[in-house]
Amino acid sequence: MSASGPPGFGAPGAINPYSPPAASIEASSPAAASGYRSALPLAKAMVVILGMEVVLELISDLNAFLTIGVMQRVMAGQQVAETQLSAIDTRTSAVAVLGMVLTVIVIVQFCLFMPRANRNARSFGSQLRITPRWAAGFLFVPIANLWKPYQAMKEIWQGSDPDPNVHAWSVEAPAVMKWWWGAYLLSNIGTYLTVRTAKISPSAEEMISSCWAEIISSVFGIASAILAALTVRAVARRQAARQQAHPAGSPPLTAGVAL
Where are the domains of the chain? Predict the structure, then answer.
């Protein structure tokens, strides 16, 4: 008798228990197979970072008010300790560095959220004009970044209506989304003007003017961050509601969902 392995190993039609599964676990999930992936985790992460941006903006405003107070004393001819002037530079530099770090994180999160939300809307059967890559890519294109990212978000909202019978073109963008984009543009304009008018060695009066400009700009920055958090959360929840009511990959009830 010839030597053989464990029973069943060499028999015709036998199943090898050590062989990989014929189909991936991810593909076995209806949502994964249809291309839908919840955007809620990304939205929650963005809400946290945007909340941190709001806190940092408030800290920046506090630093600006303290700087104004010190510069007013300088203009009045009062004696100001060198440590107070150094503290202004230290606080301003720390806030600027933290602001850049948070901005980069928000941009990365945006570049992850937009393509996923775009693909989700497509998995529902919506024919969006902006591709998943360009949904994030337009943020880096001069001139086009003044309106294209908003258009991409609006298309995602329209293509993710919980009711598959609703024609996407008839869906209005929510007010929070419009206010978010308006505040975002005003914040960017304010930041641009503040940076352009800043001087390397400003006088006390110029520093006061710069601080007031930063405070006014931060109002729009705070509003933009809050409204952005509300927008991405609303979009993610809308898609989750659509997935629950009419899962991606289900046969369309009507053709009205296409853009």
Answer: 40-245
Task: At 19, list the tokens.
Answer: 């062989």
Q: Report whether 47 contacts 233 (CB < 8 A).
A: yes
Instruction: Give me the mean pLDDT over the 193-204 stretch.
Output: 83
CA atoms within 13 A on the CB side of 133: 0
Residue 146 has pLDDT above 90, yes or no: yes
Compute CA distances 47 → 95, 136, 170, whole Å.
20, 18, 29
Q: Which tens digit of pLDDT belongs to each residue from 106-134?
A: 999 999 999 999 999 999 999 899 999 99
Residue type, 37: R
What integer best gives the mean pLDDT of the chain? 86
Q: How many residues does the chain have?
A: 259
Give the C-alpha separation, 153 to 157, whole Å: 6
Could you give the percent of the chain with pLDDT greater than 70? 84
pLDDT of residue 252: 61
Task: For residue 74, give every residue at least 6 positions away whose Cβ sits within 8 Å of its Cβ, in sequence order, or none.
Answer: 80, 204
Those residues whose C-beta lies under 8 Å from the C-beta of residue 72, and which sit 6 or more positions away, are 204, 208
Is 23's pLDDT higher than 70?
Answer: no
